[in-house]
Amino acid sequence: MKKFFLIVGLTFAFAMNIFAQEDPSWLRYPAISPDGSTILFNYKGDIYKVPVIGGTAVPLTLSDSYEYSAVWSHDGSKIAFASDRFGYFDVFVMPAKGGEAKRLTYHSNGEVPSTFTPDDSEVVFTSVRQDSPDNVQFPNSVMPELYSVPVEGGRVNQILTSPAYNATYSADGSKLIFHDRKGYEDEFRKHHTSAVTRDIWVYDLIDKSYRQISNFAGENRNPVFIDNDAFYYLTEESGSYNVYKSSLSNPSQKTAISNFEKNPVRFLTRSNNNMLCYSYDGQVYTQKEGELPQKVNIQLAYDGRNNLPKPIPVQNFTEARLSPNGKEFAYIFRGEIFVSSIEHGTTKRITNTARQERSVSFSPDGKSLVYAAETDSSWNIYTKSLVRDEEPYFYMSTILKDDVVVATKAEEFQPEYSPDGKNVAYFENRTTLKVINLDSKVSKTVLGPEHNYSYSDGDQYFTWSPDSKWLLARFGPKENIFQDEIGLVSASGNGEVKNLTKSGYDEIMPKWVMNGKMMIYGSTREANRSEQGRTGSGDVYGMFFTQAAFDEFNLTKEEADLAKELKEKKEEKSKEGADKEKDKSKSDDKKKEEKVEDLKFDWENMHHRIKRLTVNTSNLNDWLLSKEGDKLFYLTSFEGKNDLWSTDLKTKETKLFSKINAGRVSMELSKDGKFIFLLADGNPMTVDVSDGKSKPIKTSGEMNLQTDRERQYIFDHCWRQVLEKFYVEDMQGVDWDYYYQVYAKFLPSINNNYDFAEVLSEMLGELNASHTGGRYRHDDKEGDQTTSLGLLFDYNYTDKGLKIAKVLKEGPADKAISKIKAGNILEKIDGNELTASADFYQFLNRKAGKNLLLDLYDPVSGTRWQEVVKPISLGEENELLYKRWVETRRKEVERLSNGRLGYVHVRGMNDESMRTVREEALGRYVSAEALIVDTRFNGGGNLHDILSDFLNGKKYMDIIPHGQYIGSQPGDKWTKPSIVVMGESNYSDAHLFPVAYKIKGIGKNLGMPVPGTGTFVW
Predict the structure, then answer these.
(1) I want to staple 757 with a disulfide (CB 3.0 to 4.6 A). Which of 28, 448, 569, 774 is the partner?
(2) Can you name the residues that pair with 193 across neighbouring β-strands?
(3) Regarding beta strands 1004-1007 and 978-982, do their DSSP bridges make them parallel or antiparallel, or are they unpaired?
(4) Exposure string (b/e) for 857-876, b if CB count within 10 Å is 16 or more?
(5) CA distance 329 to 320
(6) Residue 486, C-beta contacts closer than 8 angstroms, at least 6 positions apart
(7) Any bridge partners for residue 321, and if so which?
(8) Tens digit of pLDDT for each residue in 152-177?
(9) Residue 434 DSSP SS3
(10) DSSP one-letter code for 845
(11) Does 970 sit behind a cis peptide bond, omega within 30 degrees of 0 on the bond before it?
(12) pLDDT by residue (tens digit) across 486-498?
């Protein structure tokens, strides 16, 4: 990810002499010391300190990890901060003057400090850890709660069982003020007013009561107490984040302290003398109430080595194409084109740019590569060609020729050579299929944009006919563009699209086979529909363009074998006759061999010349036909991940042809038909068509990764992609050009992906749209991985060991042979004594599925014993906690209604959740008088129509044979009353469902207003 190391023995003064000076920006997470003399801040993943009057900043941390969010102890002697040096963010503490940092927490869900307790004995932090066993809050990873850990290290205690950020204490230590989090929306979204925006709360530590303080419908964050009543905080009430002042006694009385426009104020802190410190526009500012903000002039000594190129191996490709000669293949790695020898792995880097290249493929003669590149603020199409006759392969080439195929202000990509090499087809502006003649450079439209809609780049499809005169393409009828049909269009641009499938099902990825007499394609016609209403499976079908081809396909195996024998005899006679013509020139032979007959189409009854080729519907990914046309190969997941299967089209024998075991796969057949080239989870391989033996292709590529150039490109690409595809053309009134300048200037000061994700999120947040933001998940395979015993502990217990409050059902300790129960004391884990001086999670690191010895004690009987358990992952623990939460809600509904009401929670807008709804409603609660449908904390999907229709059943008939009532119609819908429970955390399609439920007049919605996050952003 980054960066540089300092030899421990070097003094900072010596290091200063070798470092170059730079003007820093993107200074984040500032924290002013209690005495107002010093400021801490985060820069390039490290924590620095600088005098409040400015000057040269001194690093307190210098490591390869990321440190941020530093907070001061009240006496100013210590600082706490978050660091991912063990894979996930933990809380560390160190002397404020510098020195060794001590790790305090050991949990891999991530922990960030907020403050110190008033006596500085503990650090207060937010985390998603074990909640109070009696709390009914939904177990949610995006809503961390408040905990504390001793400064000297030790057992963690829970302070608040509600989501709490940036908590600070009142002067007398009796109250905590903080801002909440209610749902899934990106934390850097700006300018929105809805139920999901953050609010300021105060918690009274004496009477254990909560009170909401803020009343502005937009964002209110980052409160800091001034005394026991007044506080400063950040709010968007003025249009952009600014510092305001208010009080607990009169929260409606608010005073603006800062008055910045457009850009947000972030990370507010204050000193004991009420000097405010915060970040604005990538710089650190201080401000006294009633005075103007003052920028702190900070100089940094930094050597800049983080921008040096870093050699990395070229592996895990995003796309790949086989050369017509079958001896090399081209592929994309991190937006660059490489070509490798299939036999030897010899590798040549073809492009070396800061931009992205993609959609690479070979010319028919294998001497050129065509590809798309994002350059000059537009996607354009280029070629790279071999120059020297002595260099017939790209992987051994030394000189390549560059040519522009098409470069306009429009977006042009997804190029593909015609089989005769004279034209290139491509998409303009993502939806218009065009063909350009390489000699005349004249482009013609063959399929207009009225038939396509592109949600993500590369989601459109076309393929050339063998005679270079036609294209098969995915298109949608004007009445429903999202309906996938297969169209045939003339490459001349003179004809309308001809709908070949007309099915109303999804028909995808057509491929020309049998020299253009037939196409194979994927179809959902026979697929089983999920409860969600979608099809995740399909079949391969064949459509025959001539009656003769259809007749030949319908021959029995015996008839086909005879026809093949006669054909071979005829070809043998032709060959003998040709051998007698010794004087015939080789050039004439070559011309005859290369001649491709124009395709003919028997249009009448073509729609009836369709055959299902697969015998089992499955989760197909790709397919192709053998050169002889007798065998279908397809990638599907009958056995977990994708494998290569085959079906003999005459005998219908279907078998596993080659075990691939990959998630992301694609393939193509070599020109001679002897092997299949696959890209499986980014790894290239070949499969022999004769016996199914697979062979990995080893490459030897290496590239110098220049992360600063790559981040600059990604930033530009993101900004342009939004400009081109945002769902409203006016960008919701946002000056998008202005915000490019605002955030692009920070890129030279960024050397890691955490900061880069924040820059992207801040920029995208200006659009005030859901489903946006930058994301980075640090994947440290050697980092900590906390596991769980499936036990909930009593936070009020302070003696030795841990008091068990609950044993999670279906957890590691919920076994018939186990004696563990609530009230027992867990004394040791694998011999490690559980004292108050240690965070016991350190003994549960990387232990999933491994035997652990537990020492237990029953204080009632006075007995001690040992048990062996196998811990589970945190993900598995969360599943158990979710089941427990649903069960407690269900029992509460049944208790309060005396069993008259049913309860079901809709976890996601997906098939699994719809199956749960159906199972519960028509099974467990078939006799209930009404149904409570709880949709809170639902992250979305696509279920709003199916679910609302299910709840909208209207009984129209009773079935009473021989006087016995046996049921009613409809029998597959809920026909009784229902009510929907919703909340601020309903996201995406979980916002659309309550809307559909209300519009259809099914029943009432109950709960908090749902944010408007059902936006079709692109």
Answers:
(1) 774
(2) none
(3) parallel
(4) beeeeeeeeebebebbbbeb
(5) 7
(6) 472, 473, 474, 475, 499, 500, 501, 507, 508, 510, 519, 521
(7) 330
(8) 999 999 999 999 999 999 999 999 99
(9) strand
(10) B
(11) yes
(12) 999 999 998 889 9
